[in-house]
Amino acid sequence: MLRRTLSQILGLAAFVLADIALITFTYFSLYLYRISKEAGLEFALPRVFSYSYLNTLPHFDDYLKFYVVIIAVAFFFLQRYGMYYFGVREGALDEIVKIGRAVVFSVVAATALSFLFKVHLFSRFVFITFTLITIAVLWFWRFIKREVILAFLRRGHFKKNLIIVGAGQVGQMVADELTSRPELGYSVTGFADDDPGKQQKMFRGVRVICGSKSLAEAVAKNRVNEILITIPSERELIQDIITQCRRQDVQIRVVPEMFNLVTGSVEVGQLGPVPYMRIVKTPMRGAPLVIKRFFDVAVSLCVIILFSPLLLVSAIVVKMDSPGPVVFKQKRVGKNGELFDFYKFRSMVVNAEQLRAELAAANEADGPVFKIREDPRITRVGMFIRKYSIDELPQLFNVLKGDMSLVGPRPPLPNEVKKYGNIEWRRLEVIPGITGLWQVSGRSEISFNKWMELDIYYIENWSLWLDIKIMLQTIPVVLLGKGAY
Predict the structure, then answer these.
(1) 188 CB contacts (<8 Å, ≥6 apart)?
(2) What Rg, from alpha-carbon coordinates, does the chain have?
(3) Distances (CA, A) of 320 to 31, 266, 325, 378
(4) pLDDT attached to residue 409
(5) In sequence order, what are the beta bridge partners of 373?
(6) HSE toward the beta carbon, residue 72, CA cutoff 13 A
(7) Whether the Cβ atoms of residue 458 and residue 440 lie closer than 8 Å to each other
(8) Mean pLDDT calculated for residue range 429-443
(9) CA-based angle 431:313:374, to the nearest 5?
(10) Of the N and C termini of the chain, which has fewer Cβ atoms inside 10 Å?
(11) From CA 227, how far away is CA 425, in angstroms rounded?
(12) β strands within 244-384, DSSP E
């Protein structure tokens, strides 16, 4: 424990010092460049490191004071946004947004102080350029750090061994998430479960290796670093586990009771003296929903205008390739189960729906979905436009009509919805979308259950930034044709 704590402290110190070095170098390089130009002096970058030289330049003391403010504010917000976590927890887009906020806040704080103390000597060039360059360099070196750590994690280094207590639905979902995301840095050693029927069986690729009574022995034998308890209602069991493992160097985490409810977000409120928790299906409501709709319409119009030549060419080649209509119209299920006309460029033969029954035995997808990797119904042009999602472009008109959104769960077929359970039905609580978490996470290569989990996560955690991030992630997926068939 002492060694791990010491390594964490040293890692954090190195992290902070690296940020300070990059900010300092950028700030004073720009200051020196600007002052040298104004004074007609020769600009020499190595002099940035010479305090005796800098102290002879005009207004250096003032710039130094505001440098201290910038460092302090930037460090505060970088720490607050979790930018000093040594592992890999944020995506590249999330990191650059948080770094941008921290740097902008630090510069705004320095600028506000300059107005407060009536100091108007600062160069807009220095502060604007400093903001942009600092965001770039802080993000870039974190990008390098993340890629290096990911490379080590994928090779099995630095991983923490974890035992999950409870091989039920929640435990299996957690195991699936941890095993599919190596960047989290966990190796799931196994489940601990007292059900005799589950002993030594595999769930989501993870074996039940012990019961709760022999958990301490399994922890010692497998050098386990953490225990994750997914059955918080069993209070006596939790107390027993804590007592067993008290003498061992292992962290114990408990999944909250509310996690067992397959619901949306939780809002805490009070009715008079009585506190309560209200289940919110989705944050996609009220003013945010209006903003989302405005965003959908504006972006759809821009994309339609920008890609109008591609739309025209696609329509011509679809018509020339095989007989039938250019646009395929199909009934799909939208929000709250309402049917709407769904548009795509036709990529299959005209009698594709009739042939589907004959190909039912060849279905490669699990759940109530029909997909075949080498579908014989697809035309030559259809194969190309499906791979690069060109066939989806007419759905921009569905967005303008209000039947669909740019981002959201994919609209299912009526016969698929008939097979839905209560969990799957949650996908119909929001307007369906052209792209979504499913598309940027593997598309047809992921399982139906994982697909449903991603859709529900999106519904419960929606934000406009999440929509923008998914749209940006969609671009490389479409260009590479990843997971499409």
Answers:
(1) 162, 163, 164, 175, 178, 179, 206
(2) 28
(3) 63, 54, 11, 15
(4) 93
(5) none
(6) 8
(7) no
(8) 86
(9) 65
(10) N
(11) 33
(12) 251-254, 265-271, 274-280, 327-333, 339-345
CB 444 within 8 A of CB 365: yes
In the numeric block, the tokens 């102080």 are attached to 113
Please write the tens of the pLDDT for every residue from 209-252. Answer: 999 888 888 998 998 989 998 886 677 888 888 888 877 778 88
The domain 160-260 belongs to what CATH superfamily? NAD(P)-binding Rossmann-like Domain (3.40.50.720)
Beta strands 206-210 and 202-203 are: antiparallel
The arithmetic mean of pLDDT across residues 100-112, rounded, is 87
Q: How far apart are CA 458 and CA 472, in angstroms?
A: 16
- The pair phi, psi for residue 391, each rounded to 5°, is -65, -15
Q: Which residues contact 307 (CB under 8 A, 6 or more apart)?
A: 393
pLDDT for residue 262 is more than 50 = no
Domains of the chain by residue range: 2-154, 160-260, 287-480
- Report whether pLDDT(87) > 70: no
Reading phi first (left if > 0) and then psi (alpha if -120 to 50, else beta), residue 327 is in beta
Whole-model pTM: value is 0.61
d(CA 118, CA 241): 62
pLDDT above 60 for 272? no
